[in-house]
Structure formats: C-alpha cells, structure tokens
Amino acid sequence: MTTDPETRLRRAFEAATAGVQAPPEPDWDRLRPRRVSAVPAAVAAVAATLVLALTVGLVRGADVAEDAFTPGAATATPVRPAASPVFAMRQRGGSRPQIVDLATGAVRGTVRPPSGYDEMAMSSLAAAADNRTFFFTVRKSPAGRWMVARVHTGDSGRPEGRAVLVAQAPSARDLEAVAPVDETLTTSEPSHWASVDGLSVSPDATRLAMRVGGKRAWGISFWDLRTGRTATWGSSVSVSSLAWARDGSLLWASARWAGRLDPKEPPSVLRATRTLSQRDDAGRFELLPDGDRVVVRTTPTSGRLLKLTDRPDLPNIILDTWVTTVLDRDWAVSADGTHVLYQRNGVRTLANLTTGQRTPTRLDGSANQTSHFAW
Amino acid sequence: MSREALSALFHEHARTLVRTAVLLTNDEELSEELVQDAFLGLHRRWRRKGPPESPEAYLRTSVVNACRSALRRRKVAERAAVPRLVPDGSAEAAVLLREERAEVFAALDGLSRRQREVLVLRFFLDLDDQAIAATLGVSRGTVSSTVSRALRALEDLLGGRG
C-alpha cells in the first residue's frame, strides 16, 4: 500500500472497529437522587464503616470480610429448553466472558460481572438448557471467595444488564467438616475458601452444583437458587464431572468411580455406585444425563471423539476421528446433553451425540483454540 | 432529562463512542463499560446542574478521560500494544487489508498517548482542531502541532516498516 498516512489511518480505524456493536443501554433508574442535607451524616457513616471494616480486616484477614451476597435474594424462574442451541458463552484466559453465535462466530455481547468482581482467571462456565441463561465464577481478588454469577441474554444473544451473584463456594472449613480429610496433606498457607473446579446447572436453571476442592478435601456443593438452600457433600476423591439426570438427581464421576446423589437428601460423603472403565482418561471427560461420558482423545497427530458407555452390553461409540496438526484439547457438552462442541483440527465443531452428524462452526483461530465454552 | 431523550442520545452516539474507545484502549469490553458509565455520568450531571452546552461533546470528553484513567488504572497499556482489533467472525478476510491494518496499529503503538488521541479524534471522528482541543482540554495550537508531529512520526514508522 502506498497511500498517504491519513487515508491509511481512516481505513484502518474504520475496518478495525467495523464489527464493534453498540453496548446495552444502561439502566437509567440505577441513579438515585442524592440528598444534600444528609451529606455530613453519610460521611460520618462511611467513616465509621471504614474503621469497622479495617478493624475486621486486620483481625481476620482482608479476604475474609468481602462479600455482600444474600443467598436466595436473586430470583430464579424455571426456564424452558431451547429447540436448538445457537449461542455459547466463551472465555479466554482471565478476560470477561462473551456470548458468541455458534453459526457465524460473531460476538453478540460481552458479559459484565457483578460490581467489584473482576477476578476471573480460571473461572468455570455453565449454561442452562434455554441457551439464554449462563453462569460463571468470579471473585474479588485472587485470595477471595469464589462466587457464582448469572446473566440472561435476549434472543439476540446480547446480555441483559450486569450479571448478578446467585451462589457462593463453601469455606474450606465447611468443606473439611463434611469431607474425609487427607491429614497427610498440609500447607503453610491454608486457604479460607474452597476452589470451584466446575459448574453444572439444572436444565431449568433453578439448581446449581459446583465441584469444589480445598487443600485437603473435595466435594460437591449444591444450591437451590429459588430458596437459597445449600448443602455440601464431601468426597474422598476429586470429582471430575457433573451432570443433571432426567429425574432431577445429580450424577457425578471421578477419574475412577461414578455415582448419583439426590439433592433433597441430607448431605453426606459421596458413595460410588459403579467403577469406570478407560482409566487412562484421568478424569478428562464430560458426563451425560444418561451416565455415559464424552471424551476427546488426542495424540500429536490424530484425534478421536468418543462416547463411553461403561456398559458391557453396549460398546463405546467412535463419533469422529481426524488427523490433526494442533492440540485439540477442549470440549463442552450442551446443557441438554444432546450435542458436543469440540476442537477438530483447531476448528470448533458441533456433533450430534445421537446421530453423529457434524457441523463445523466459524469459531476457529488461535483465540478460539485457547478459550473455554459453555452452551 | 427525559428517559426517552437520554435513550435517543444513547442510540445515536453509543456505538461511535465505543469504537472510539476501542481505538484508544484496544479493549472492547472495557470500552463498552466506559461508554455506559459516561452516559450515566451525563444523566447524573443533567439532573443536578442542567444540560451541558453540548451533550455530545460532554460524552466525548468523558470517554476520552475515562480511557486515559482506565489505561493507567488497569495497566492495559501492554495489551494495547498488541495489534488485535480484528473482530471475530469478520467478513474482512483480505490478507492485504489485514496486514495493512496491523502495520498501522503497530505504528500507532509507537506514538505517545496524546498523539494517538488526536489522530483518533481527527481521522476517526473527523473533528476539527477546535473540537479536539475542547475534548482534550488543550489549546488549538497544541492540537494542530500534535497532529502534524503525529502524522510525521507515523509516516516515519510506516516507512520504516515498508
């Protein structure tokens, strides 16, 4: 190109931002009238609160006194399953999740986390079966408590306002109270909060399960989002995957065992009901609502998408095999358990788990290869 | 200010302001947030002190200032040095155009913050010296000389890459 700098600038500015969309309109009612006469009292109140907060922070550790979350305060109305999912939530690294159109790859909107909750490195994602309700984990600081936020999107895929907090991870102490603790594992820097290793949302978006872990214990934390009721089940092994069965129970699996729990029953320690085959997957699989598992196995030159049945009367099903030059390492099952979105030679591809039909998406390129998806 | 008027203003200007902020910060998520906050700031100001002389200019200044603060606060300057700025799923797959764009943004990264601001305001928003001066809170003479120097520097940088 030999055109002058001005023309090049105009062309570059225009082209680089052509795909930028208008943001969602703010909630104008968010602003409340300020009472001028109340300023001195307000200043005094803020000062008193700061002193109290600083005192509490100094005594208990700053990361302990951090959330203003009220369980059950956010409403949770049951949603209906979508005829076919068209959107996915995507997250790259520690950036904010985006809602993307599976067919075109276009970004429909960026999810704004709850105010003050910007720390999203290693966050977990989940979607409800309506394909319009998405969940993700956030926290205020790297040492803070993991919270679960929820965002709804309109039919265009655009998030409707800022995400709201709906659940929180248990404290490490609460988890260790219900889980068999491995006393051989000690740490010089014990964490106050359990980590959230994965999320699973009931298809109607009213119940939530988290795979949680501490330095010395593991478990599953359950939340009824309509009532705020919560319960934590302990586990002697790390839980690898969760799925909601059609009957409302929660299926879980570790690298070697699997079982089922009824969230209505009093919490206890997880009891396995079956042993899994194919232990070489080391827990890197996704459970389906019928208890089968989906896994992508890769070598440096090839990939295979498999459905593992773990039943002697039913063989495993090879859904796809391909030659690859990149490391295809991430996959996600749709909220209704009917499809999987996986990497096939670097391109995100949809596979129907019943028919085996495959459809490439426009989600390609290095950025999509290193992103995580929920849909 | 009525909600309808505010809403109309938002629909007329929000996207352009986000695009401007993207060019300054190279962060679309951040830009959306800054523009929304700018509109809420306008709403607040309007209710307390009445309308600014030009709501559009008020918003523009708010967004540019917010971009500066955000770049300082969130230290995204490092990210701005990466010539990303290619929308996902864009139909513009022409390799030449992409390379051209990458070259221009790489050159822009070599300019000062103020030089980049004046170039975006001049060549993206098509503002004259007076409007740019009002937006940045500097004199017209400063704008004029900054534009000239920025273009010269850009030409050198682009020439050096060619």
Give a written overview of the molecule.
- The complex is a heterodimer of chains A (375) and B (162).
- Chain A is mainly β and 375 residues long.
- Chain A has one domain: Neuraminidase, CATH 2.120.10.
- Helices cover 13% and strands 32% of the residues of chain A.
- Chain A contains four helices and 24 strands.
- Chain A has helices at residues 5-17, 39-60, 172-178, 365-369, and strands spanning 87-92, 98-101, 107-110, 125-127, 133-138, 147-152, 164-168, 195-201, 207-213, 218-224, 230-235, 241-244, 250-253, 257-261, 274-275, 286-287, 293-298, 302-308, 317-323, 331-333, 339-344, 347-352, 358-360, 371-374.
- Chain A has a four-stranded antiparallel beta sheet. In chain A, strands 4-5-6-7 form a four-stranded antiparallel beta sheet, with no helix packed on it.
- In chain A, β16 (286-287) and β17 (293-298) form a beta hairpin.
- With 162 residues, chain B is mainly alpha-helical.
- Chain B folds into two domains: 1-82, no CATH class; 83-162, Winged helix-like DNA-binding domain superfamily/Winged helix DNA-binding domain (Arc Repressor Mutant, subunit A), CATH 1.10.10.
- Chain B is 77% helix and 0% strand.
- Chain B has eight helices and no strands.
- In chain B, α1 (3-25) crosses α3 (55-74) and α7 (129-136) packs across α8 (140-161).
- The radius of gyration of chain B is 17 Å and the shape is globular.
- The A-B interface holds A 1, 5-6, 8-26, 28, 30-31, 33-34, 95-96, 98, 100-101, 104-107, 110, 112, 362, 365, 367 and B 3, 6-7, 10-11, 14-15, 18-19, 22-23, 28-29, 31-33, 35-36, 39-40, 43-44, 47-48, 85-90, 92, 96-97, 100-101, 104-105, 119-120, 123-124, 151, 154-155, 158.
Feature tags:
heterodimer, A: about 375 residues, mainly beta, Neuraminidase, 4-stranded antiparallel beta sheet, globular, B: about 160 residues, mainly alpha, Arc Repressor Mutant, subunit A, 2 domains, 8 helices, about 75% helix
